[in-house]
């Protein structure tokens, strides 16, 4: 089953969007391992003279766009709730949670990592995604009932909450609100922007990307690295506009590839496995520096390899595990 089949509207999928979905997931894999290995989630001015930190930061912020891009595609084409799809997502989560539990226990020589079984609390993205998916019919009805101005006000309200959480650290804003904001922005772009306005968005996204890089450079030049979390935050509305322009531009490139569509259908599974405890432990060694190659190339190539490994595992899951679920009649064929 296609990982994002619920929001594909045409009978023949545009493989350019499917390719972008793959690239977004590769970026997410790259982002997580890169951030952990170079301690990039949070750092201060004391690291300003650290060799390579400027390039690390640029690559970190590029990788940050993976999640908004992946979710924007979902919102752009719209989620459509189906019971079979909901069961499939849950079964995927359970499969990879158990696989990770077994793998990490075998690696350590004793049972450990039992908290992974409670998978919706182990993967913040999938938990928020599923909540959104469950209520997608109601969300879509609200969007259809709202005129464009009121939908824009609702988006502004959500981002007021999200931006406020950047400054008020005691605020608790869940990933569900974040993904909902992404979803609404994407639906607004799809439903209400004219082709001319979408073209403007593409150029605006390019400008935002340049300003983002300029902001990183200024932060380093002025030794104000504390500005970096605000620039790269998911809560920054400029970042969703940046990936929005990318999605709109990609949509205009139409081609069909069964191979790309086949690989893209397991995109969600690559997140589940690579970000499980065992996946993190298993793939960590892939990023050892190879002599003669720049680390950025190594990280990109290895992230692609990890994506392909995860896809292969997911295809085996579909071949050997899914028939058992069909047999129990949980999912209709």
Q: How is the topology of this model organized?
A:
Layout: H1 15-37, H2 53-63, H3 66-77, H4 83-108, H5 119-122, H6 124-134, H7 136-145, H8 148-167, H9 175-192, H10 195-221, H11 228-232, H12 237-251, H13 258-264, H14 267-274, H15 277-284, H16 295-320, H17 322-327
Task: Describe the protein in words.
The chain is mostly helical and 333 residues long. Helices cover 71% and strands 0% of the residues. The protein is built from 17 helices and no strands. α1 (15-37) packs parallel to α14 and α8 runs antiparallel to α9. 38% of the residues are buried.
Relevant terms:
single chain; 333 residues; mainly alpha; 17 helices; globular; disordered N terminus
What would you say about this model in short?
The protein is an all-alpha fold. Helices cover 71% and strands 0% of the residues.
């Amino acid at each position: 089953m296609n990982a994002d089949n619920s929001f594909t509207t045409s009978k023949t999928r545009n493989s350019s969007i499917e390719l972008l979905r793959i690239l977004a997931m590769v970026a997410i894999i790259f982002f997580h391992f890169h951030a952990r290995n170079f301690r990039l989630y949070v750092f201060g001015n004391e690291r300003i003279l650290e060799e390579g930190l400027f390039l690390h930061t640029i690559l970190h912020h590029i990788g940050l766009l993976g999640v908004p891009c992946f979710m924007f595609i979902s919102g752009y084409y719209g989620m459509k709730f189906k019971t079979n799809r909901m069961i499939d997502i849950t079964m995927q989560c359970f499969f990879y949670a158990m696989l990770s539990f077994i793998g990490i226990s075998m690696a350590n020589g004793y049972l450990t990592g039992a908290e992974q079984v409670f998978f919706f609390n182990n993967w913040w993205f999938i938990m928020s995604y599923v909540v959104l998916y469950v209520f997608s019919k109601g969300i879509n009805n609200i969007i259809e009932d709202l005129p464009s101005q009121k939908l824009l006000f609702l988006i502004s309200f959500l981002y007021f909450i999200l931006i406020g959480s950047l400054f008020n650290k005691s605020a608790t804003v869940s990933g569900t609100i974040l993904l909902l904001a992404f979803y609404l922005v994407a639906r607004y772009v799809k439903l209400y922007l004219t082709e001319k306005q979408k073209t403007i968005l593409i150029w605006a996204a390019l400008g935002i990307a340049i300003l983002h890089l300029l902001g990183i450079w200024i932060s380093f030049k002025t030794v104000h690295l504390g500005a970096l979390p605000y620039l790269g935050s998911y809560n920054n509305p400029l970042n969703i506009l940046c990936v929005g322009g990318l999605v709109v531009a990609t949509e205009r490139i139409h081609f069909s590839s069964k191979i790309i569509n086949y690989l893209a259908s397991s995109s969600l599974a690559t997140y589940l496995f690579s970000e499980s405890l065992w996946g993190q432990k298993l793939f960590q060694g892939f990023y050892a520096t190879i002599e003669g190659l720049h680390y950025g190339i190594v990280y990109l190539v290895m992230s692609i390899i990890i994506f392909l490994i995860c896809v292969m595992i997911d295809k085996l899951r579909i071949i050997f595990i899914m028939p058992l679920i069909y047999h129990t009649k949980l999912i209709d064929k």
